[in-house]
Write a structure and sequence with these properties.
Elements lengths: L16 E18 L5 E19 L6 E7 L12 H12 L6 E7 L9 H16 L6 H9 L5 H6 L2 E5 L4 E4 L6 E8 L5 H11 L12 H9 L2 H4 L4 E2 L2 H7 L3 H10 L4 E4 L6 E5 L2 H16 L13 E9 L4 E4 L1
Parallel strand pairs: 1-8, 3-4
Antiparallel strand pairs: 1-2, 1-12, 2-4, 2-5, 5-6, 7-10, 7-11, 9-10
Helix pairs in contact: 1-2, 5-8
Bound molecules: cytidine-5'-monophosphate.
Cytidine-5'-monophosphate (C5P) binds next to β2 and α5.
Length: 327
């Protein structure tokens, strides 16, 4: 249940709006040189998977935007004012909502600092929920544009599905994908900082050593078939080496997933979540079971604490979509 401030619910107000926003993984992530603004030029294929954050926007009488958080790693989130969901709702209220307020109740399912755009998903959820709660005449394109001001991955999490991303990730071209891809996700007990992973990438790639990135044609062609066997060898993440440098234990996770029958394992975005593409749903379930057994208890011949810092082994499928419900 939500912890609504007792005096803030408005009996005659609009019904609350609940939005589920899926996590993203990058099927391809090609990183170009650092730009003068500090961001890197990217060429990526975003893909939404069925692991979601859920946000409900409740009407309030005043102009304040407030937040309470439940779910996994809720205690790892920083101050309310810095939260991307709050910043997104405030921005929308000032620009289009005539200063209206809302109480946001957020349930986290996406790991914090996991390379799966959890914070961006919360911003996207707040934009959708508050736009509907306040009855604003704004469509997907308007919210995508607002999202770009909040973070590089926010526009895609507003959209969901599968899409090519260019620029710093905010210029999107949706792709249609026949069928469903089956994934196993392995999350970590400790997150990775995205700026730190990009900084490590820069150390490994001196200025002048990387060119302008573009999404390889093979990925787009393989996606158009919807065939995981064709897609697997085309998966690519230029940030993987940097993430593995900072978290060498992830190499064991990647090997274990492929040994368990995954077609391919890759680091998701800036990591440390590792994602595994399976041939089908039944085999994805078996891979997940194998990995759960493997990482539930470290082998006796290994020092306690020296193995991979696995938090959860999860099943997901993609592409997933943003879902909105009223009431
Ligand atoms: O846009 P967002 O706030 O998600 O980015 C977080 C950080 O990740 C940036 O401050 C930057 O250090 C790094 N980043 C980057 N190039 C991108 C996207 C993110 O260097 N295209």
């Amino acid at each position: 249940m939500t912890d609504l401030p007792a005096d803030s619910a408005r009996a005659d107000g609009p019904a609350p709006v609940t939005v589920q926003v899926p996590a993203k993984i990058n099927l391809a992530l090609l990183v170009g040189p650092a730009r003068p603004d500090g961001f890197h030029e990217l060429a990526t294929v975003f893909h939404s998977v069925s692991l979601t954050d859920t946000l409900t926007a409740h009407p309030v009488a005043g102009a304040e935007i407030t937040l309470d958080v439940a779910g996994i790693s809720a205690d790892q989130l920083g101050a309310e004012a810095d939260n991307l969901a709050v910043r997104a709702a405030r921005m929308l209220s000032h620009r289009h909502g005539q200063g209206r307020g809302a109480h946001l109740h957020l349930t986290k399912g996406i790991p914090v600092a996991g390379g799966m755009a959890g914070g961006s998903a919360d911003a996207a959820a707040a934009l959708w929920a508050c736009a509907r709660l306040w009855g604003l005449d704004l469509g997907t394109e308007d919210l995508v544009e607002l999202g770009a001001e909040l973070g590089s991955d926010v526009p895609f999490t507003v959209l969901s599905g599968t899409a090519i991303g260019a620029g710093r990730g905010e210029h999107l071209t949706p792709l249609s994908l026949p069928g469903t891809l089956e994934w196993v996700l392995v999350t970590s007990t400790h997150g990775l900082s995205t700026p730190q992973v990009f900084a490590q990438f820069d150390q490994m790639h001196p200025p002048g050593s990387v060119g302008e990135p573009s999404v390889p044609r093979e990925v787009v062609e393989a996606l158009a078939t919807g065939d995981p066997q064709q897609l697997a060898p085309t998966l690519r993440n230029d940030l993987a080496a940097a993430a593995l440098h900072l978290r060498p234990d992830l190499a064991e996770v990647l090997t274990a997933g492929e040994q368990a029958g995954a077609l391919r394992g890759i680091v998701s975005g800036s990591g440390p979540t590792c994602v595994f593409l399976a041939p089908d749903a039944a085999r994805a379930d078996r891979i997940a079971d194998t990995l759960r057994t493997r990482f539930a208890a470290p082998p006796l011949d290994r020092d306690a604490g020296s193995g991979p810092r696995v938090a959860q082994v999860l099943r997901a499928s993609g592409p997933a979509q943003v879902r909105i419900s009223h009431g």
